[in-house]
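The protein record filed here:
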Amino acid sequence: MPESRDADLLGLEGRSVIVIGAGGDGIGTAICGRLAAAGAHVIGVDREEEALGQFERAVERVGGEATSVVADASDPEQAARFLEPGRTTGGPHGLVNVVGGLPIDRWQRLLDYTDENLDAILETNLRLAFRTSRAFARDCADRGAGGSIVHIASIVAFEAMPFGAGYAMAKSALLSLTRTMALEWGPLGIRANAVAPGTIRVPRNQASDDAERDRKVLPLGRRGTPDDIAGAVLFLQSDLATWITGQVVAVDGGASVKPSYVDETGLPVFVSDPALRARLLG
């Protein structure tokens, strides 16, 4: 039996939202499920047909409507494949760019960083979002309709990332691009925002789970889940966020606001006086 649909204040009922990177049973799939539960017609895009099966099942569980599109979103000529299904609902109305990441074989020291490595990371984490957003915005402009774009960035955009310089560069640039989109496309009625996840527990990294470590280093004491990110995306795509654009929402359990010199108790490591520590920690 389908789960109940929550569409009361969100205004997504009957609208179409494209999700680039919908498969994989991770963040993209969770976003699709949340949007579908809110009444949106979700257009899931992935390069692999097999991965889209997970997207379809996520939408089916909430009794939602979905269209699967097998396409390489990095190819401008394939943009029509994911734009066309949204026209059946007078859209598309929204776009979510999820594709990105830093594969193990792309971690590299700056001294050894190659142009090929940098180009590959920028292609996946920046240029793809630029191309899909441009296609979406051109379509909105041609129809005289507004829309909402949400990019999945990362909290590494706010700080350094040793051995992952290209990834941090790409995500920092994505935030700048998001703000420029907000300014240039605002007059077209298009909003552009970003969500910056912290460490998220997805199928491919569950082997690195360590609850005790997470309790020590993360203010909220746990790693995030794909649903944590999906909730923020749902908000930014909804009518609850109609006057929000050019912004980035960090969804990271407080990681990005915790200074490196704060220990697991929440006190600066420099506070070494036992009496003071005892008084502050109660």
DSSP finds eight helices and seven strands in the chain. Strands lie at 16-20, 41-46, 65-70, 94-97, 147-152, 190-197, 248-251. Residues 16-281 form a domain with the Rossmann fold fold (CATH 3.40.50.720).
